[in-house]
Design a protein that fits this description.
disordered N terminus; mainly alpha; 14 helices; 3 domains; two-stranded antiparallel sheet; single chain
Length: 378
């Protein structure tokens, strides 16, 4: 999963590197001359090394890619069934899941014309096939996830399941390749592009979208679940949403989630605001998906103690409140320092209290004064 994007990015970087060294634009271009030029670049340390994933990582990528394809086919089959019902103006049934046990019986007993009945029956057979294949793939993924301490550590974050953790680990491979969080964010394509020229202020555009698209998609989808749980990430999401809207806020939350993953993996620590009962439930479901027997269940696995579950959520709420207070104190401290020196936006001298804003930019004032001096000379 994500291998095609990595190869395309590598080819683009390789073409740019060769263009910089002059190999592509050389008038005399032979294998011997190219090998000599590459040897000189390698000896001088000008060539960047390319990480090649091992067999286990490549196998995990292929499994996740196969699962993603099956999920898309499954969604398409469901949409075709909904379309057949809409064409016959059949309202939705009273139950929520149309493809559950009750929904399947209702669809089987429904009177439809022959073409629509063929469509519904064919899509149901396609659904059964996709669900069986997805269950088989998830069984293998769950078995490998139980043996991976990295995936288990990422699952301690509330809202992160095994598919998100496995997709992230399959995309990056070894976390030691990234010296800091910024390199990881740039590798995943979650870093904003910057446009700046001359004395104008730098304008931040949309994210670069480099690297694995599947990893970005998994992080964004997981962020929707993470921001619903109490904790500092939800406070961060709400703060960005108040200024930029929910779409930019969820992308920022996914970037924050990637940084959190980097910290957990490099420090070999679990999430500080993890909920133990929720983590036990995730691991138990992972064991069942891997084929473990459903007989013996450890006490407290399914969070039967509601008081303990609520106490864990209360601790997460306290962390969320502490984060909000920390950010508010930091913002008040920044406001007291005055406005930054930005041409056309603020004065060149810092103010003692509230930031002083001016309506006319400095370059316009300088232009007006120069025009006045020219008129005086005339």
């Amino acid at each position: 999963m994500g291998g095609g994007a990595d190869h395309r990015a590598t080819r683009r970087q390789g073409r740019g590197r060769l263009a910089d060294t002059g190999i592509r634009s050389a008038r005399a271009k032979t294998d011997r001359l190219d090998a000599r030029a590459l040897a000189k670049l390698l000896a001088s340390g000008s060539l960047d090394s390319v990480w090649v994933p091992d067999e286990d990582t490549q196998a995990m990528r292929r499994r996740l890619q196969r699962r993603s394809q099956l999920v898309r086919v499954k969604t398409k089959a469901k949409n075709e069934i909904h379309g057949a019902l809409m064409r016959r103006l059949i309202p939705k049934p009273g139950f929520s899941d149309l493809f559950g046990a009750k929904g399947r019986r209702w669809l089987a007993e429904l009177e439809l014309p022959a073409p629509e009945r063929e469509t519904v029956d064919g899509c149901m057979r396609q659904l059964d096939f996709c669900e069986a294949e997805i269950a088989q793939i998830e069984r293998v993924i769950a078995a490998e996830a139980l043996d991976s301490p990295e995936i288990g550590r990422l699952m301690t974050v509330p809202g992160v399941n095994v598919i998100t953790a496995a997709t992230f680990m399959a995309a990056i491979g070894d976390i030691r390749r990234f010296a800091d969080r910024k390199r990881l964010v740039g590798y995943l394509g979650l870093d904003p592009r910057v446009r700046q020229s001359g004395a104008s202020a730098a304008a931040r555009a949309r994210i670069s979208k480099r690297g694995s698209a599947s990893a970005r998609y998994a992080l964004v989808e997981a962020s929707w679940s993470v921001v619903r749980a109490p904790g500092p990430t939800r406070a961060f999401y709400e703060r960005i949403r108040a200024r930029r809207g929910h779409q930019a806020a969820i992308v920022a939350a996914s970037r924050k989630l990637a940084c959190l993953f980097w910290c957990l993996l490099t420090r070999s620590e679990d999430h500080a605001y993890a909920q133990p009962s929720l983590t036990k439930k995730k691991l138990r479901r992972l064991e069942l998906a891997a084929g473990a027997p459903r007989g013996a269940v450890k006490p407290g696995t399914w969070a039967a103690n509601k008081a303990m579950r609520e106490a864990e959520r209360e601790l997460a709420r306290q962390a969320e409140v502490a984060y909000k207070r920390t950010v508010a104190d930091w913002q008040r401290g920044q406001a007291k320092k005055g406005a930054s020196v930005t041409p056309g936006r603020a004065s060149n001298r810092p103010s003692g209290g509230k930031a002083a804003r001016q309506t006319t930019s400095p370059w316009r004032l300088r232009f007006a004064s120069s025009v006045a001096r020219a008129r005086f000379r005339l």
